[in-house]
Design brief:
Layout lengths: L16 H9 L7 H11 L4 E4 L6 H14 L15 E4 L3 H14 L7 E4 L6 H8 L4 E4 L1 H9 L10 E4 L2 H6 L3 H10 L5 E6 L4 H10 L4 E4 L6 H4 E7 L5 H11 L5 E4 L3 H13 L4 E4 L5 H12 L5 E4 L1 H4 L9 E4 L6 H8 L9 E7 L4 H11 L4 E2 L18 H6 L7 H6 L8 H4 L3 H5 L19 H19 L38
Parallel strand pairs: 1-6, 1-7, 2-4, 2-5, 3-4, 5-6, 8-13, 8-14, 9-11, 9-12, 10-11, 12-13
The structure holds adenosine monophosphate.
Adenosine monophosphate binds next to helix 3.
Amino acid sequence: MQEKVITTSFDSLGLKAELLRAVTEQGYTQPTPIQAQAIPVVLAGKDLLGAAQTGTGKTAGFTLPLLQLLGSKANGSHSPARHPVRALVITPTRELAAQVEESVRTYGKYVSLKSALVYGGVGMQPQVDALRRGVDILVATPGRLLDHVQQRTVDLRQVEILVLDEADRMLDMGFIHDIRKILALLPAKRQNLLFSATFPDEIRKLASAFMHSPVTVEVARRNTPAELVAQVAHPVDGARKRELLAHLVKTNDWKQVLVFVRTKHGANRLAQQLTREGVHADAIHGNKAQNARTRALNEFKDGRTRVLVATDIAARGLDIEALPHVVNYDLPHVAEDYVHRIGRTGRAGAEGEAVSFVSVEERPLMAAIERLMKRQVELKTIAGFEPGTRSANPSPEEPRRQRQPQRQRRPQQQQRQPQRHGQPRQQQRNGPQQRHGQPQHQRPQPRRDDHRRLPAPIAAEHEAQLREARARAAMDEPYEPQAQAQPRTEPRPEPRVSQRPPRRGFLLGGNK
Ligand code: AMP
């Protein structure tokens, strides 16, 4: 589809001086395409379906007109009763909620409206207090919002504008029922804005059920990360990925690197190991308390932490200005996630680099990614890290892995045998000295690379399960090969990305 070339200025969009002033202070000179198209539609009071990813400027696209609409009826009263929730923004993740609310405060600096943030993983009381003081614009994740509804600490009966941000992510994360419940609590007469990067059938069905003749704006494909971001893949043995990462960070003097791994425990472990090697790293994932996540993110943004190791869900919606390097330490099982990951860098035309570590088992995953992007990623071997070669400077744990093929048990065995011979697992992991007293370990064991003889996609999945089992064993946690979605309590489980059906492209038409 041919996209309209837009050369609008902020002044011509009909925004008030207070908002233009805040925008200018941000250094924005021109609206992004989603802003140019969405702002007049929202100001006109119409429902809007926006096909836009994070990184397109969509937050200002809905926040600015929303502030204007509510601001025209703002009151300076301090009475909570005069500040009912009039705009509700729902986001899938806490990080995105925090960023949206920050944008509301930034763009609303010169408008007298009150905003608040409500998400899980932190205490209810400060949120209850904030809600009691009166809130015009509430930014919330669905689960915690419903907790407040249940405790009658929030009243949504006066909501005039509803924004569903990253609706497809909400669907992926299993929030659709929560969303339906929330919709049922809102007044029927209201303005609805829905933003989504993709429009699977379920989103379309949802949208048609609650939106009124929405105007469609679509810009998301404009900034395909595949075009903006320099991409390279390094073939490397799985056991040497950490060493390669430390090598690249040190030799290239990378200052700010976002590293994606598949599991929360893998994230913790990698961050600890890198820090031990003198590369200051931290981890961000769904098992961390929200304040620890916020702190990790802030320290990374400030440059105090050099490497932030993240899982896909935790990194969703992260907005870090000019993030120069993204590393796919583990390739994602769903090719679309690769595109989301590398979209963290190269934003707004900034130069970014996405580096992928590809073990032999992950080659089918890389091939799927290339098919999705319809382009090849340059394959570059780093000298000294050629697959199949040993480290000249082995890490403390590499020899252990190489000398202990018997640790490649089936995941189910690990689950059934949390301890062997009465030894704590930590001791079991500690290497050769235990093996002398355990003759059964000398029995022929399956070769470490047996699984590589499996068909490639199965081998990759198998290897991923083994890796997760090992990581969990290291964290002393039971291994659940297919963790099921848990009931709604926050923090939310990170969904098994491999269970998500691949996404389709945009199905929306042009502007109506
Ligand atoms: P978003 O897609 O809303 O997460 O925005 C992505 C980034 O673009 C944020 O860092 C915004 O500060 C920035 N941004 C939003 N609007 C503009 C604009 N008109 N010009 C330049 N940067 C912008």
